[in-house]
Amino acid sequence: MSKKINLAHPRDQIITIISRIYKRGMTTTSGGNISIIDNDDNIWVTPSAVDKGSLRPSDIVCVKKDGTVIGRHKPSSEFPFHKAIYEVRPDIKSVIHAHPPALVSFSIVHKTPNTNIISQAKRICGSIGYAKYKLPGSKELGKVIANEFKKGYNAIIMENHGTVLGGSDLTEAFERFETLEFCARTIIYGSQIGTPNYLTDDQISEFEAQAPSIIPEMKETEYPPDEKEKRLEICKIVQRSCQQGLMISSYGTVSMRWRNNDFLITPTDVNRWDMNIDDIVQIKNSKREKGKTPSRATWLHQEIYKRNPNINSIILTQSPYLMSFGITKTYLNVRTIPESWIFLQDVPSLPYGSHFKANIDSNIVENCTKVLIIENDSVIITGDKLLQTFDYLEVAEFTAKSLVIGNSLGSMIPINNSQVEDLRKKFLI
Asked: What is the CATH number of the domain that holds 278?
C-alpha cells in the first residue's frame, strides 16, 4: 500500500505526483512541471525536456536559495513563475503546472470553471484566478501569475496555456489540481447532454456544516484475520478507483460489512491516493475504532447495512461522466445498452440535500438501487462483494460515457419495454 508522500524527500514526492498526473492523461511527455520549496528555501523542480512518463528521483533539479543549480538537467523552463509564486506567497510550499485537457479547454475560451458545481470543490479550490497570456517561460508570465496569487487565489487558469495551482504541501496542491480538473470535465461533459446546474453558497455551507458525526470510541479493538483481509481489499479498490479516474483525492468513501452490522470504512480527511490499511476505521456495535475519524458518511453506510441485509459493500464517489448526469438533472437511461440494464437495472437520481442526515430520503437507505445519483454531490453504488460493487461503478461510468459521447450523433434510442421484459425472463431479474 502507498505511504504518506509528505514524509518522503521532495524529489520522491515530485516523482510520485508527476507519475499520477501523466498516467491519468492530465499532461503530456513534455508538458507540465512541479516544484516544492523546502525549509531552507531551496526549490526542487522537475527538469526541462525530460520525459514525464519515465522521470526518476535523480532527474529532479534543486535550485538553491542563492540560485545555484544542483542536478544533471536544467530546471523547468517555467521555473521563473514557480519562484515568483513562492516570493509573494510564503504560505505556499508546492506548485503544480500542467495542461489537463478540460482546464486547457477553459483556458482557450478564456473562462474559469465554476467550482460550485459539486459540494466540496469550493472549499478545496476556492475562487479561480485568471492570468492573461504572456510568453511561456518569461518573467512577464511570472509577474501576471504572481499577481493573481498575491490576490489570494490558489488556483489559476492561464490564458491559452493551462493551469497553475499551489498548496501548503504537494498533497494539497495535487488535491486542488485534481478537483479543479474534475469540475472542468464534469461541466464540459454535462454541457454535451444538458445545462449544468450549480449549487448556491448556502447549499455548500449546509454541506460543510455536516461535520462527521462523533460516535463513541471503542475501549479496545481486535483485528482478527478476516477483518485485516477486508482492510486490504478496501485499500486496493480505493487505489484502483483513483487510478481509473473513478474517485478523486478529495472525495470518495468505501465500506464493507464485516460481521452482522459491523463494518469497515474509509476515514475522513485522508487523501484517497495515499490511503493505507492503518487508515481504515472499524465500526463495531456503533462505536468507532479508537483515535480515528471515519467518513462523514458513516451514519449513511450504517443505516444502509442495517436495513439491507443483502448489501455487503458500498462505494460513494464522484466520477465525471456519471456526475455529468447529476449536474444537469438528465436521466441516465441504461436501457440503451442491454448489458448495462442487466447489471444495473434503472438508475434513479435524487435532489441535492436528500442525503443529509436531517432530511434523509428513504429511497437512499430503504429502497436501495444498485446505483443512485445524488444531484451535484455523488453516486452511491451498493452490492454484495466489493469487487462486484466496483464492477457496477465501472459499468455505470462506461455507460454514462457512451451516452455523453453518443449524444453528438443523435438521439439515444433505448430498447423497448417488451425487450426489457425479455431480459428479465432470460436473466431472472
From this structure: 3.40.225.10
pLDDT digits (tens, 9 = 90+) for 158-196: 999 999 999 999 999 999 999 999 999 999 999 999 999
SS (H, E, C) the chain: CCCCHHHCCHHHHHHHHHHHHHHCCCCCCCCCEEEEECCCCCEEECECCCCCCCCCHHHCEEECCCCCEECCCCECCCHHHHHHHHHHCCCCCEEEEECCHHHHHHHHCCCCCCHHHCCCHHHHHCCCEEECCCCCCCHHHHHHHHHHHHCCCCEEEECCCEEEEEECCHHHHHHHHHHHHHHHHHHHHHHHHCCCCCCCHHHHHHHHCCCCCCCCECCCCCCCHHHHHHHHHHHHHHHHHHHCCCCECCECEEEEECCCCCEEECECCCCHHHCCCCCCEEEECCEECCCCCECCCHHHHHHHHHHCCCCCEEEEECCHHHHHHHHHCCCCCHHHCHHHHHHHCCCCEECCCCCCHHHCCHHHHCCCCCEEEECCCEEEEEECCHHHHHHHHHHHHHHHHHHHHHCCCCCCCCCCHHHHHHHHHHCCC
The model carries a pTM of 0.94
Q: Is 118 in the same domain as 228? A: no
**Do the domain assignments include residue 347?**
yes
**Whole domain around residue 36: which residue ranges?**
5-193
Say whether pLDDT at 2 is over 50: no
The verdict on 69 and 104 lying in the same domain is yes
**Same domain? 119 vs 257:** no
Neighbours of 330 (CB within 10 A): 19
Q: Are residues 154 and 226 in the same domain?
A: no
> How many domains, the chain?
2
* CB-CB contact of 137 with 78 (8 Å): yes
Residue 165 shares a structural domain with residue 237? no
Question: Each residue of 36-94: pLDDT tens digit?
Answer: 999 999 999 999 989 988 999 999 999 999 999 999 999 999 999 999 999 999 999 99
Query: Does 379 share its domain with 317?
Result: yes
Residues 30 and 158 in one domain: yes
Confidence of residue 310 (pLDDT cuts 50, 70, 90): very high
Of all residues in the chain, what percent carry a pLDDT higher than 90? 84
**pLDDT tens figures, 208-258:** 877 656 789 999 999 999 999 999 999 999 999 999 999 999 999 999 999
